[in-house]
Give the backbone structure.
Amino acid sequence: MKIRKATGADVAALNKLVNSAYRGDSSRQGWTTEADLLDGIRTSEAALQAMVENSEAAILVAEEDSEMAGCVYLEKKGRVLYLGMLTVAPTM
């Protein structure tokens, strides 16, 4: 498994991964589903692009056999590190 920092080129794949893990029928395969709690999408390409461009933050991507397997968002807020959007592909 390889861990790396996401770039703008990853935004479309990140959007697909995060939304498939948190919302919709595909999310029911995994442990992160919010499908029965909330409607709509979990995130958007615009929101992910802003996260990637944030100089105080990073999205780390986990790749397995060149496939995006997961991600996590980290943002420095003063002396605190915010962790969010912990995502694992529902098929894993």
Q: What stands out?
A: The helical segments are 11-22, 45-53.
